[in-house]
């Protein structure tokens, strides 16, 4: 073996051995605890920097867009006043985007605040729906609509519009869509939002829709548009428990 080959052999061997060797690193960390309380003096330069943005944001959040003639609370029951309002707004917008939309669907857990009686502000709508969820319209088979109803039956009802659902022993006793019994051979269009269409809140009946249309409009924008539309028509916001979801005890 000549000297050049011998040198290459030893170089390769040393590189191989060094690459197989476990590298050990020592991590040293330390920190200091700073207590934040009323004794901390605000930095006036920071306050001055964001004050214009804070003022602009507060003006928008306090902007009045409508009037609630009654308090609309959430609820964990089969229906709630706020849930019905919420679902009605979804159906209203869904029909604007696609006149063939039959029904709408939300979940109780997605509605995060009650609506007090009186002026409705932009901030109120953000409190009700703080998430970035956007509108989705699903085309579903009659079988999927029935499975959707079964989901609602096992969860004690959810906010809906355009249907009548009767639940007994956590099972579907009756499902009417636009006043007619569900037809397993038919197709239906459902307005909801992307989070639920993607399987959020354990909704598994939307896994294989016939068609799906996603829209950029946020759900809170839909709610604000619905309130503003009614205000323009001289109407206040109100709701009633109309029996759209009933549980037989």
Automatic annotation (TrEMBL):
GO biological process terms on file: nucleotide catabolic process
Pfam families named among the record's database cross-references: 5_nucleotid_C
Gene Ontology CC entries for this record: outer membrane-bounded periplasmic space
A GO MF term: hydrolase activity
Family annotation (Gene3D superfamilies): 5'-Nucleotidase, C-terminal domain
PANTHER family recorded: 5'-NUCLEOTIDASE, 5'-NUCLEOTIDASE-RELATED
Protein name (database record): 5'-Nucleotidase C-terminal domain-containing protein
Lineage of the species this protein comes from: Bacteria, Pseudomonadati, Bacteroidota, Sphingobacteriia, Sphingobacteriales
